[in-house]
Model the fold of this input.
Amino acid sequence: MSSNSFAYNEQSGGGEATELGQEATSTISPSGAFGLFSSDLKKNEDLKQMLESNKDSAKLDAMKRIVGMIAKGKNASELFPAVVKNVASKNIEIKKLVYVYLVRYAEEQQDLALLSISTFQRALKDPNQLIRASALRVLSSIRVPIIVPIMMLAIKEASADLSPYVRKNAAHAIQKLYSLDPEQKEMLIEVIEKLLKDKSTLVAGSVVMAFEEVCPDRIDLIHKNYRKLCNLLVDVEEWGQVVIIHMLTRYARTQFVSPWKEDDGLEDNEKNFYESDDEQKEKTDQRKKPYTMDPDHRLLIRNTKPLLQSRNAAVVMAVAQLYWHISPKSEVGIISKSLVRLLRSNREVQYIVLQNIATMSIQRKGMFEPYLKSFYVRSTDPTMIKTLKLEILTNLANEANISTLLREFQTYVKSQDKQFAAATIQTIGRCATNISEVTDTCLNGLVCLLSNRDEIVVAESVVVIKKLLQMQPAQHGEIIKHMAKLLDSITVPVARASILWLIGENCERVPKIAPDVLRKMAKSFTSEDDLVKLQILNLGAKLYLTNSRQTKLLTQYILNLGKYDQNYDIRDRTRFIRQLIVPNEKSGALSKYAKKIFLAQKPAPLLESPFKDRDHFQLGTLSHTLNTKATGYLELSNWPEVAPDPSVRNVEVIELAKEWTPAGKAKKENPAKKFYSESEEEEDSSDSSSDSESESGSASGEQDEGDSSDDSSEESSSEHGSDSESASEVGDKRTAKRNSKSKGKSDSEDGEKENEKSKTSDSSSADSSSEEESSSDSESESESESESESRKVTKSSMLPVMALFVRERGSKRKSQIILSKEKEKKKTKQDRNPLTKDVSLLDLDDFNPVSTPVALPTPALSPSLIADLEGLNLSASSSVISVSTPVFVPVKTHVLLHRMSGRGLAAHYFFPRQPCIFGDKMVSVQITLNNTTDRKIENIHIGGKKLPMGMQMHVFNPIESLEPEGSITVSMGIDFCDSTQTASFQLCTKDDCFSVNIQPPVGELLLPVAMSEKDFKKEQGMLTGMNETSTVIIAAPQNFTPSVILQKVVNVANVGVVPSGQDNIHRFAAKTVHSGSLMLVTVELKEGSTAQLIINTERTVIGSVLLRELKPVLSQG
Amino acid sequence: MIHSLFLINSSGDIFLEKHWKSVVSRSVCDYFFEAQERATEAENVPPVIPTPHHYLLSVYRHKIFFVAVIQTEVPPLFVIEFLHRVVDTFQDYFGVCSEPVIKDNVVVVYEVLEEMLDNGFPLATESNILKELIKPPTILRTVVNTITGSTNVGDQLPTGQLSVVPWRRTGVKYTNNEAYFDVIEEIDAIIDKSGSTITAEIQGVIDACVKLTGMPDLTLSFMNPRLLDDVSFHPCVRFKRWESERILSFIPPDGNFRLLSYHVSAQNLVAIPVYVKHNISFRDSSSLGRFEITVGPKQTMGKTIEGVIVTSQMPKGVLNMSLTPSQGTHTFDPVTKMLSWDVGKINPQKLPSLKGTMSLQAGASKPDENPTINLQFKIQQLAISGLKVNRLDMYGEKYKPFKGIKYMTKAGKFQVRT
Done:
């Protein structure tokens, strides 16, 4: 023993070490004679000494060596007491390394670990946030159950810390505590709830992570934070983005209705093509009503779009899956480009992305077709990448590109990577079955491959040919003969088995060859593979049945061989076949049918993609990659039939928004319902906008709809004022119709409908009593929509727009009170959601406003561009009445002050097209000031103003100083009184004054308005005669594509796009900033290359000016 | 999320392990070794391997496998992207990322990993922030540290961590303020036997090296931004300015970073700057094959092509090759059958060529396919797509920085089928 230790002493060398060695001897002796251990122990002794020394450098050295041991996976646990003493070290690096050690070993040495706790508790109060944070990190990483209460307390405190960094760490600690003690769940959820409200981007990702880990089912915690998360998303760090996007995808699937419904609706529509016009019309109405995208749904889709440009592949993939799972089908296309870009990345990234593309490309070929060539295989790709690319190429193959692809495949077949070559052959087989035009070409090609020198290739070809022939068995005798010859040379069992099967199946077509093959096989039976043996048996059986004269003996011989085979499968099969085909006294009735059994028509195998069924996993998840459910995978729920109450996402502040709060609101229920009805109205008024949002809605459908709504208005005008009889008839019909339509809904709905009807009369009568001008016959007619429309006309003709809103709000409030009463009555019967829905249907009939009260998300153009503005607006629940977001156009700047005339001060102005913050009637103007001199310009302000009558101006705050080369943008508001008169004022600096003026283009005096086509027509109907100006434009047809027109019009004027049901008519709506009068622009395309431009407005002067401005723009090339 | 990380070298040794949650035994890597054996080549090891209780996600870079162990569902790209980021960070810290370097700096590696993940969730991955938390080892600093006893570990929270520009540290000071931008374009192409292009794409990046004092706000504009079909940005780039004005506006991180990667749309015809004439033939009867390739310039816009390297994976049947190059050097590895010819510069007057014979295995049949030729080359001072930077402006700081822009075209995955 001592000699042993002595040897080690010598190894370590040095006088001090010798002493240590002696010490070590005593400790080792009792433990036994294992040299290896003693060496470790002794070394550790040495480390202990260093840790106990007074010098930091020695300690640090020791800690570094210990960390090295940990890294290599060596056990350093017995140093625990020595290390833990240093936890309070002043030296930050020692401290950190001690932390590393603690986290690693605390679990094993719980009692000793407790010694360190007080240090952390002290550190949690440290003024340095980094120290607080790291103390919390380590404290929560020590997996010692005894300190759970301390951890809980620390987390609670840290979650209220001033430093977002500490709060972030608190969010991480939540997960750690939860995994240590799931009992704490309830308390932790409270902390999560609190942290979810945090406004810091730093915290957002971590807390959502904690949410996903601890309580992914508590979706209710997200509601209030949903919009905030959407808006913060771009600024969150990339890892947080991934987690948040995945969570929001799940959220969206539970909270919004499916944006894919249009497709179903279309089918419906076609089915009912022959129904009467009347019904048809209603049907269309109904179809449209159910779906308009919730603005929150749109918000999510829009705010994630810029992230497709992220450098982080995980973020891009997350956005891609979000689009795939929750956006309307027509918008999914934008992700393909970004996904293809990821293919440039590392092999591992490629692997995952290609898998996801493979799944997508099965369902939506079109998405990736333009990128076909990006999936061409390079010889340097790893095999797994090659096969995935092949998979995608197969999915993308169609009649148009198959010839190119086949040529490409030819190269692949020759590849040196034989595994890949074999996969290519499989692929060719699949293409051949999928695309009937090329089946023969493929088959010929494959037959050529049969003479290939490589066995794997030949074998694979045989297998594929077998499958192909099975699909079209006729007239391929030649190929079968060729393959029969191959049997002599080919050795791969699968291929041999395939050939045998093929010959057996077609034995009547090759009557001469088949028995000969059987003869050969009988000779080699014993040396064949099991797979082949089975097929020999099969072949024998089939031949016995068809050609027993020649093969009876042979078959019996084979059956005898099989009877004594080592494999029980083969023995089993032999017994079975013998009983079946060889008639004897024991064989039952079955043998009569032997031929039918063996030579039955067999269905051709389906050659399917292995990715076919993967789409039930959420894309981009681990489960999708593995094609099995991974632990902790959260199922993506199906879209709800009816959207849950969207008002839950309203944040408190918004509920207080002045417009919507009824004065006497007492019950908590009120705001919820209100929001609902409001959104329903929005749906109605924009019913056709859903079409324009998705290209998938077929043109014919749109046309239909446009027509039918025309019809309906005509009808209603003729029926206007007719008695209630016809109305109730309509009502009956409608009930029936609804029943047929809503299959998923319960029967009780019938009864409910009845109630609803009676209720309708209630509410509308109440309504009529509150509104003097409501038409007298509204009693039961109000259910018919056309009627309500016509009434609306009268309303709007009487009152200016703004006033109408006020009144309407009032009436709505009343109706809500009535409705809420009724609702309470019925609560026992019905569950809440369908009810609210119906209630709101009524609501909308009665109070359909002139134009939408809520800003519609502009459907057409690049939504992400306006995202920032929209994001802010939405959180305020779109308080800007009727003004929609402007369509984005490139900013046009005008020179206000040239730098030469401004002595180095240059000023430009432009119209940001946003509602002015300084006053309702003002146009907002942004001025960019540049200092081109080499010295400071001080005190820039606006001096004297020379404004025409009535014009007002809100100036910007004086700028103290502008650095050389500096630039600053300020905003101001000018009320131009709806005229194009010039606003002149003086721009002053400390030394100079410059006279400048701003003349607004007429198009900037407008604010876009969102309204439906229906409303537009109505308004237009009232603004005829004097109020209408029109002109004819002539231009080349390529300038009359919808996008070009839209582009040109919005470039000139700040108008909102009105969704149009007709291809040849484009409508735009706006109101003037000062007076709020409507400005309706219509571009109607005519035969040839002419178009009619019509402008309807009360403000005829502006109207004609706008007309003059628009005309040259539209007609120019 | 990420439970543990194992670093495995090509000979199958685990040389580093790190756990962020409770310890996972390293025996879990046995499943990985199994997969590695089955895959024969390192490249073919599947990136995701399921085991009964864990999932192993790995990346392979610099001949090291970085194997992450996870227990529950997590987006695989999340882990993979993170692992790549770890490798990038090591490279940034130590210059190279190799087994000996990691072993030498194991403490720094450990400290860095500790900061990058907390409980398996990424904490600080921006190299600017990490470098403030843990200073990269330099010889000078090691010497200073041993004398003064100071450490590599920062004791203040990096300011970037809390600011709206987390990628930049504050208090940056330089005596020479410089900003360099490299526009590097790579041509990915597959050229078929007859010399016609099957597919060609241009992928470009703009790498920047910015050493500017303070908090500069830069804008970079292009002469022809329409060329860029698909772009991805460093997080510092303001997306909205790009969307509206096609201008890159950003507060740069300090030091080297990739500002932008872009893709030039496939619709634009790609100029292929080189051509390869080849004559490779095997004959059935004889055991000798003929081999001859010539490389020449095609559409180079008057620039010289440099750094040309031709590589080709010869079929297994080729035993040896006796070749004579007209310039440059060539090697043939009879084990891996890899032929590599370092050509250097192409002189249009005297085109480089490589001629000779291949000796084939006697008796073996001739290979069905001729080998593919992979090409590497560089063209300085040229962006093949025609992209041009218009100007670079700086706001927010007073000094005049030195600005430089360099263009380069390289071959990406450039293959010629023969």
Notes: The radius of gyration of chain A is 40 Å. The longest strand of chain A covers residues 937-946. Chain A touches chain B through 112 residues (CB under 8 Å).
